[in-house]
Amino acid sequence: MSSNLLFLIIYTLLAIATAGGMLFASYLLGPRRNRELKDTPYECGMPILGTARERFSVKFYLTALAFLLFDIETVFLIPWAVVYKSLGVTGLVEAVIFILILAFGLYYIWERGALEWD
Amino acid sequence: MQINWQLVIDIAKAVIVFFGILTCIPILVYAERKICAYIQDRRGPNRVGPLGLLQPVADAIKSFFKEDYTPSHVDKVLFTLAPAMAFIAPALVFAVIPFGHLMEIKGYKILPQVFDMNIGILFVLMIASLGGYGLILGGWSSNNKYSLLGGLRASAQMLSYEIAMGLAVISIIMTAGSTRMADIVGVQTQGLWGTCIPAWNIITQPIAFIVFLCTAFAETNRLPFDLAEGDSELIGGYHTEYSSMKFAMFFMGEYLAVLTMSALIVTLFLGGWYFPGITEVGNTSLLNGILSIFVFGTKVGMLVFFFIWTRWTLPRFRYDQLMKLGWKILLPLALFNIILTAILGLR
Amino acid sequence: MTDTIFMVFAVMSIASAIAVVTWRNPVHCVLALIASFAGVAGLFYLLSAPFIAVMQIIIYAGAIIVLFLFVIMLLNLKKNEMGGDAPVQDRLFTVFLCVITVIILSIPVVATFTGTFYDQYKKTFPKPDANLGITETIGQEIFSAHALAFELISILIIAALIGAIYLAKKRQRG
Asked: How far apart are CA B209 and CA B222, in angstroms?
């Protein structure tokens, strides 16, 4: 039946082969005209200011961290979601406590302004 | 040697499905250009072939024959890998989507689904969590500050909306009591309150549907969530330095993502291949199978139209509005919906 | 068939793990780490623990790696800031530590599959339950036997959240 990992592997290899084939084909088919200006980063023709290797806002890091923690929450709720009917009220109470504690976490980062971007 | 025809059929199916969704890309490109043109009171492509139908073919040939330039300031390995990743990830999602009813012909079973996984929906979340890498690595490897900003924005945006998406999916898992795609569709084939109205999740889970729809737009990086490209601020965003087929592959990835997202919404919320009166549950005849695939295709087509329609109607969000929507509206809404679903389900 | 797939995943995770510690470009290392996690996830799947396999990708490859990537990009260490090669004696010491670790870790592995312990193991241990790794079993287990541990996880997460916000915001205040 279709639950064999083999089919997924074939499908994945097919996708990788197609992607590689397209990259290779365009590498073979395209012309090559080297010009010095092509080697500079494109900034709409303006003189280039600074480099791309600057340090950026810590906001992105905070977002990734908050994401990681809430992602773990999501993951822990999935096993509960599958069997919540047989777990009954006990399971519901446990899950609601879990959700509320993390909702408090959301409230905390909200209050501390970690979600503000302006 | 005895040939295992069942195995041959299943392998052939995997190959056909993959090239099937590849064929959909030019159709989507044509549809987008034509619909956009009519929305803007233009005619759209109409020179190449009848009604401009061959325009996508011409586009493809053009991208192959353009100069494939890798600037010397980029990280060459990642610069090549990034478009491939952006293309492969959305294609993989389609492997677990059931797009029709099981057919039985002369004892051979044909299930219109490449890989019937026990945890199909989790597989989708897994691929979604890897989906952002193509964009951020493309942006970083380009060594161009606009590309980097585009890539960063893209990944922060995808991260923010992934949580709400995961939580919306949890309430769907709760209604189905299973993480298997076939079971999620199966629940939706029953009648609601003893009537012929199907128990599609869009009716039983309206909040989850709205949350999922918003996150679907954000995950595909399309307007109103296309801040990663934001051409008026960031030149081309993460693909500024790309040319030729590498550039085209980012776009193929985007259209594949639109296609798989539509297929996913159909499967999770709109009853998948089921439509009352047209397809029957448990009927394994060839006719029923083909009809179910047709029903599924029609629903996906309508959603793709909705994606295109939205893109040419709504303006782009500001970045702070985007983050506010993801963290302060969709996330609490999805959490609330889970608790609500649990209370109603246990009643 | 399963043996072949197992070998592919095993080689994939080990080879990429070696790449992580030997490649010089940190962003390339991060990519190799993703490949390594994918290999480990494949191994989990073969052990009929599909839920753990998917979690391996979602949490490690999907979330933690993004954090690594952001840190690397946030710092953007220039070549001269990274420091040169370590002195010879430090590197020799590193090699020594690695060898010791490998020996210590391989003792239980070798002991498991050879000698009397393995015979004993085969006799006394029941066959692993195929349903052990599926989502339903995990849900039943977490919410009945391990309910307290589960609630404590949320406290742990919230502690991490508060700590991170405090560290990130500290500089801006003062």
From this structure: 18
State the smallest CA–CA distance between residue B114 and chain A in angstroms: 7
Q: Are residues C5 and C62 in the same domain?
A: yes
- The chain C residue lying nearest B81, using CA atoms, is C31
- A15 neighbors B75 (Cβ within 8 angstroms): no
B87-117 residue pLDDT tens: 999 999 888 898 888 888 887 888 888 888 8
B192 touching chain C per CB within 8 A: no
Position A66 pLDDT exceeds 80: yes
Nearest residue, CB atoms, A79 vs list C58, C142, C161: C142
Decide if pLDDT at B250 tops 80: yes
Query: Is residue C174 pLDDT above 50, yes or no?
Result: no
Residue range C134-147: average pLDDT?
83
CB of C13 closer than 8 Å to CB of C40 = yes
The residue behind tokens 């991170």 is C164
What's the rounded Cα separation, in Å, for the pair C79 and C89?
23
Q: What is the CATH number of the domain that holds C21?
A: 1.20.120.1200
User: Which of A6, A26, A75 should we substitute to test contact with B (largest number of B Cβ atoms within 10 Å)?
Assistant: A26
What average pLDDT does range B37-54 have in this prediction?
Answer: 83
Q: List the single residue in A26, A63, A77 with the smallest CB-CB distance to B244.
A: A26
B330/B336 Cα distance (integer angstroms): 10
Best B133, B136, B152, B157 member to test C by mutation, with max C CBs in 10 Å, is: B133
**In this structure, are C78 and C156 located in the same domain?**
no
Q: Is the pLDDT of residue B251 over 90?
A: no
Residue of chain A with shortest Cα separation from C78:
A53
Do C65 and C6 fall into the same domain?
yes
Q: Specify the higher pLDDT residue, A45 or B61.
A: B61
- Residue A2 confidence (pLDDT): 44
Contact between C62 and A71 using a beta-carbon 8 Å cutoff: yes
Quote the ipTM score: 0.85
> Model's pTM, two decimal places?
0.88
Domains by residue range for chain A, with CATH: 5-111 (1.20.58.1610)
Question: Does C7 lie at the interface with A, CB-CB under 8 angstroms?
Answer: no
* Structural domains of chain C, count: 3
Quote the pLDDT of residue B305. Answer: 92
Strand, coil or helix: B105: strand
Q: What is the chain A residue with the closest CA to C9? A: A9
Q: Among the ranges B140-149, C17-26, C70-79, which has the highest mean pLDDT value? A: C17-26
SS3 B103: strand
Whether the CB-CB separation of B95 and B111 falls below 8 Å is answered with: no
Cβ pair A64, C67 in contact under 8 A: yes
Which residue range is the domain that position B147 belongs to?
A: 5-346
Residues C80 and C28 both lie in one domain: yes
Distances (CA, A) of B172 to A65, A91, B70: 26, 18, 44
A63/A58 Cα distance (integer angstroms)? 9
Residues C22, C97: one domain? no
Q: Where in the sequence is the domain holding C143, given as residue range(s)? A: 134-174
Q: Cα distance from B42 to chain A (closest Cα, Å)?
A: 28
Number of domains chain B contains: 1
C141-157 pLDDT tens trace: 888 888 888 888 888 88
Of A33, A41, A75, the CB nearest to B73: A41
Interface test with A, best of B22, B67, B242, B333 (most A CBs within 10 A): B67
Neighbours of chain B (3+ CB pairs under 8 A): A, C
Q: Report which of residues C81 and A111 the model is more confident about.
A: A111
